[in-house]
Amino acid sequence: MEYEAVIGLETHVQLKTRSKMWCGCANAFGSEPNTNVCPVCLGLPGVLPVPNEEALRKTVLTGYLLNCEIPRYAKFDRKSYFYPDMPKNYQLTQYDRPSTANGFVDFEFNGAIARVRITRAHLEEDVGKSTHFDRHSGVDFNRAGVPLMEIVSEPDLTGADMAYEYLNALKEILLQGGVSDCDMEKGMVRCDVNVSVRPVGTQAFGAKIEIKNMNSFSGVRRALEYEIPRQIEAVKRGEKLIQSTRRWDDVAGVTEQMRTKEDAHDYRYFPDPDLMPSAPTDAWLASVKALVVELPLARKQRLMRDYQLPAGDAEVFKSNVALGNYFETAAKAARNPKAVANWIINNLQSKLAEANEAEAEEQAALGLELADMKLSTLADLKFPPAALLELVALVEAKAISSSAAQQVFIEMFDTGQAPAAIVQEKGLAQVSDTGAIEKFCDEAIAANPNPVADYKAGKVAALNSLKGQVMKLSKGKANPALVGEILERKLKA
Ligand code: ADP
Ligand code: ZN
Ligand code: MG
Question: Which of the listed CATH numbers 2.60.120.280, 3.40.50.720, 1.10.1760.20, 1.10.10.410 matches domain 434-492?
Fold first, then answer.
């Protein structure tokens, strides 16, 4: 019998807000432990939470980006549990009345568009971070009370690669919407992976096995690549899988059992009496809807349609939003947007990366950490997007050769000078004056009897060596196509 995997993901995303969910403490990463704390996020007795509107806004915005319904009533519940990372002994979360529900995400997978339904995206609070030392443990509460959004998918995913692509698509959407910085290194996106297997062609789900707290997408993929065959082999052996929770050991590359359903928690959910339910008004919802941005996939499809870009180029501009915006600004008036895309992808990107590398080296020498460095971005370019368009136009009009264009580009990048001015100053204009080229051709033919004889004897390739001579004589400025034409005409005469 053949088996297939059924996978649903619960993705936790730290929202990009200035302050925490219920207090004014900074939502910041990397501070000294327990410096961004106050009586509210430490759960001291007698304190009252005040909801962070920006967090609510970003959750509802996510709902719109994920094609969700936005209910007119949402509330926060207390999820009770006892663990040192949660001083209140309950986590506030939207249990049965979330801010958003019933959406979907479309993304590219295996050359087609896949759709994963979104059960809900709800708001909750993050908890403290425990660190275990040799003989004691410590808890840092800087993260306690940071707004956390949980995006729950329906069990629509069918494999490790699909889960990986879904997560990447989700991350791109959240980044594009400005909802979260999604910095994996800072633990801003964490994921619980639910996976079961069933015989192909059947509908009923197998026992759900949850792999907890994954903090990298490639980890999710590897964990599933291990876990799916493990489950299939187990059921093939006749073993009966039971609902359970496992942990991923990234070093060993295996999942191992943590607990089964029998020791499941009873969280005793109940509505938080200190918080008003949220009942968004039409006006507020409209103001959030106004923040909706174009989704990455839609953007890619539009770039391919409107600018006739190949999928590869559009993909680059989809994942690098700033670069894509730059392209669109430059390409709007372009006759050949593909040429503009080539310059941006092949030249501008690498030149900027090169500049950043030099800047980083300089600043590292001054003792700066990477996070504190100021590296140039597209916004710091010395030339405007229109200059790139001008450069493309010069090449297309054959006013400069493509190798001269490379020189012009570097000069533009370094000095911000306009392309035409650089061409003039450096004398890079391509010679298309036939009279001048004829003279160079005559010279080359006279000075190179061997290639001339070869060509006349039928060795077509000999023309290239003559062409090279003419280019040399013209100091690289002759229009190569014209040179070819004229040489051929003269040799055939
Ligand atoms: P719980 O009540 O334990 O949180 P849910 O039914 O709410 O479980 O589902 C949590 C996540 O697990 C969702 O992403 C859902 O799509 C997924 N899921 C549920 N049942 C299964 C299953 N049998 N196999 C794989 N994933 C599942
Ligand atoms: Zn606080
Ligand atoms: Mg659930």
Answer: 1.10.10.410
pTM comes to 0.84
- Single out the residue of 57, 58, 56 nearest to residue 75, CA to CA: 56
The Å distance, Cα 40 to ligand 2 centre, comes to 5
Which of 150, 208, 224, 269 is the pocket-test mutation for ligand 1 (most atoms within 8 Å of CB)? Answer: 208
* Residue 250 to residues 183, 218, 256, Cα–Cα distance (Å): 19, 10, 11
CA-nearest residue, atom 13 of ligand 1: 8
Rounded to whole angstroms, the Cα distance separating 181 from 128 reads 20
Ligand 1 contact, 49 CB (< 6 A): no
> pLDDT tens digits, residue range 71-119?
999 999 999 999 999 999 999 999 999 999 999 999 999 999 999 999 9
Residues near ion ligand 2 (Cβ under 5 Å): 23, 25, 38, 40-41
Ligand 2 center from residue 213 Cα (angstroms): 24
Q: Look over the chain and give the mean of its residue pLDDT values, rounded to a whole number.
A: 93
Tell whether ligand 1 has an atom less than 6 A from the beta carbon of residue 375: no
Q: Is 439 in the pocket of ligand 1 (CB under 6 A)?
A: no
Contacts of 202 (CB under 8 A, 6+ apart): none
Domain ranges of the chain: 3-288, 295-376, 434-492
